[in-house]
Structure formats: structure tokens, C-alpha cells
Inverse folding.
């Protein structure tokens, strides 16, 4: 692996992390569109008041700067999404046995049609076969397709068609077993401008999660059943990624 | 600031105080004879290494100055990071907000 260009960065990650980061980018997009969706405290943190003691000046500042921040954050998120999708496609293109995967998807579509869910499966199949267009990731479609199979299997069971249910369950399991194909390490090479976009987006997500979860300066111990733990796992991953980007970019 | 709040983040150069001389500070930071100033406040989320990098890249501070200001934010709870006209400070504030820092502006000398 060669070093990144000056100011740029090389990020290596598992393919499932690519998937997770795409969901994070989706969340950032939603927050940019409506900072209030995660609560007033998160909204205040994402768009702070520049004037603490002057509500009128603060409102003026928000009116002028708010849209600029939203556009910049949206563009940064789009840049990060494009980089992640390109990396995912590169990974998928180098994965083994795509023909076998395609045959399995076609089987899933056919069986789901038999169980009355053909439209949903056909739609996902179309996206899967057009994955090169970059509209989504291959593993995301596989995940959704396996859910269609599961719903179709339940539908078949209700109709008393045990044979169809069994076939659909088997196809679903086989689809899910494709995960190791997508578990390859993905390498993303970022230009200085892309590093900047990734840092803005990753930090935006960290601020939202950290504020919503009540991250504080003190060492925090989370109970095993704390509902914030899944989000904090994402937060920790984003922390590592941001720290890596800062160090790589110098 | 977070995570590396008790120890500086890996990769962040640590300079003893004696190495950060007052006369290395940019004039707009060291000589607040202009009407407005930008204040950055400590928060528990932003990484120390990231904050120092933003001070360098957004405000143009030298590495040592950026590090000193970052440590001041962390240890004192806030630091004045820029001075200037109201328009300049609003522009600085918006760039800091774009990078996720908690920045405010106020008339100098408060």
C-alpha cells in the first residue's frame, strides 16, 4: 500500500464498515435537512448560536449562515457517500463468483413471486443487477432481498405451502451466507478535498451521537442493557476514523 | 474535549509551555485591540487533535499556537482564538461551526 498524497489519506476498512458508514451518511443527511429530528439539544449543538447574549443578532446569524452550513454539510456528505460507494463497487467487482450470486438472486425472485412477493423481489433484483450504477451497495441489496425471502416464507407458511417455505428459507440463508464475500477489506484513497469532506461528515455524526447520548468529560460506564450502547459503538468507530483522518492529513 | 481529554491524542505533538512563546502568537490573538473576538468553548465530544487541526487550517494559526489554544480551551474551558471586525469574526465563527466547534463571538474586552 503506497502512502497517501500530501494532505490526503488512505482508509482501510472492512466492507461491513462501509455499509455502516453509508447509514451514518444517511443520518447526517437527515440531520442536515432537519437538525431538530434528534431533539433540541442536538440541534443547538449542530448549529450553535454565535451571539450568546444577543438573541436578535443570533437570529440574524442563523438566518444567513444556517443555509450555508446546510449546503456545505450536504455536499460533504455526498462526497463521502460517493467515495464509500466507489469503494464498495471496487470491492464487489473483485469478489469471487458474481455469476453464482446472480443465479441465487434470480432464484430468490422466482420463489418470492410464487409466494406473492414478486414485485418487491424483482425491484431489488433490478437494483442488484445494476449495482455498477452506484445507487446502492451490493450487500445492502442482499440484506433487503433476504428480508423479502423471509416475508415470502412466512406468506408461504400461512398458505400451508411447506415446500415453498423451505425453499425460500434455504435461499434466504444462502443469501445471508454471502456476507463473507463482502467482508473483504476495502481501501479508500482520499484526496485532500475528500479528507476535508469526510472529516466534516464524521465529526457532524459524532457531535449528534455524542450529544444525544450525553457523552461527558468524565469516564463513563454504561450498563450492559443501556439502550445507548449500539450508538456508542458507532461513535467509537467514528472517533477512530476521525483520529486516523486527522493524523493522515497532518 | 473528548476521548483524549486527559492525554493528548496519538499523533498530536506535545510542546512544553516554555516552547510556546507569547511572541509566536499571531498579532490578532496576542493584541486584542480590535472590537470583536471569537471564543471557542470546551465540549466533551470534539477530539483535541481535531480541534488543533481546525485552528491551523481554518484560522491559519501556526502549529504551536494552535496546540496552545487547543490546550487552553481544554483546560480553561474556553479560549479567544481570533479578533477582528464583526464581519471577520462572523466569517471565522461560521467556518468553526462548519467544522463542528462550539464558537461564539463577542465584543473584545468583556
Amino acid at each position: 500500500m503506497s502512502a497517501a498524497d500530501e494532505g490526503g489519506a488512505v482508509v482501510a476498512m472492512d466492507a461491513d464498515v462501509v455499509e455502516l458508514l453509508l447509514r451514518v451518511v444517511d443520518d447526517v443527511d437527515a440531520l442536515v435537512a432537519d437538525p431538530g429530528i434528534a431533539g433540541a439539544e442536538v440541534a443547538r449543538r449542530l448549529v450553535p448560536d454565535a451571539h450568546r447574549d444577543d438573541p436578535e443578532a443570533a437570529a440574524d446569524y442563523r438566518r444567513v449562515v444556517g443555509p450555508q452550513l446546510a449546503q456545505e454539510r450536504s455536499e460533504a456528505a455526498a462526497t463521502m457517500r460517493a467515495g464509500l460507494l466507489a469503494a464498495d463497487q471496487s470491492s464487489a467487482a473483485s469478489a469471487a463468483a458474481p455469476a453464482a450470486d446472480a443465479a441465487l438472486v434470480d432464484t430468490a425472485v422466482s420463489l418470492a413471486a410464487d409466494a406473492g412477493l414478486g414485485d418487491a423481489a424483482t425491484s431489488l433484483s433490478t437494483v442488484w443487477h445494476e449495482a455498477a450504477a452506484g445507487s446502492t451497495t451490493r450487500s445492502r441489496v442482499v440484506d433487503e432481498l433476504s428480508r423479502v425471502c423471509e416475508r415470502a416464507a412466512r406468506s408461504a407458511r400461512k398458505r400451508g405451502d411447506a415446500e415453498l417455505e423451505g425453499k425460500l428459507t434455504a435461499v434466504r440463508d444462502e443469501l445471508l451466507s454471502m456476507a463473507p464475500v463482502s467482508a473483504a477489506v476495502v481501501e479508500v484513497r482520499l484526496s485532500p478535498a475528500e479528507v476535508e469532506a469526510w472529516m466534516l461528515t464524521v465529526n457532524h455524526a459524532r457531535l449528534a451521537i455524542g450529544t444525544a447520548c450525553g457523552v461527558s468529560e468524565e469516564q463513563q460506564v454504561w450498563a450492559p442493557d443501556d439502550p445507548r450502547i449500539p450508538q456508542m459503538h458507532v461513535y467509537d468507530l467514528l472517533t477512530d476514523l476521525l483520529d486516523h483522518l486527522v493524523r493522515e492529513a497532518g | 474535549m473528548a476521548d483524549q481529554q486527559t492525554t493528548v491524542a496519538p499523533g498530536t505533538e506535545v510542546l512544553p509551555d516554555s516552547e510556546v512563546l507569547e511572541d509566536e502568537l499571531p498579532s490578532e490573538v496576542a493584541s486584542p485591540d480590535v472590537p470583536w473576538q471569537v471564543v471557542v468553548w470546551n465540549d466533551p465530544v470534539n477530539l483535541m487533535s481535531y480541534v488543533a487541526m481546525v485552528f491551523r487550517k481554518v484560522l491559519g494559526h501556526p502549529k504551536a499556537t494552535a496546540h496552545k489554544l487547543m490546550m487552553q480551551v481544554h483546560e480553561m474551558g474556553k479560549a479567544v482564538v481570533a479578533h477582528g471586525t464583526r464581519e471577520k469574526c462572523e466569517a471565522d465563527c461560521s467556518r468553526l461551526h462548519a467544522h463542528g466547534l462550539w464558537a461564539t463571538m463577542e465584543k473584545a474586552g468583556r
In short: The longest strand of chain A covers residues 9-14. Residues 9-94+184-249 of chain A form one domain. The beta strands of chain A are 9-14, 185-190. Chain A has two domains: 9-94+184-249, 98-182.
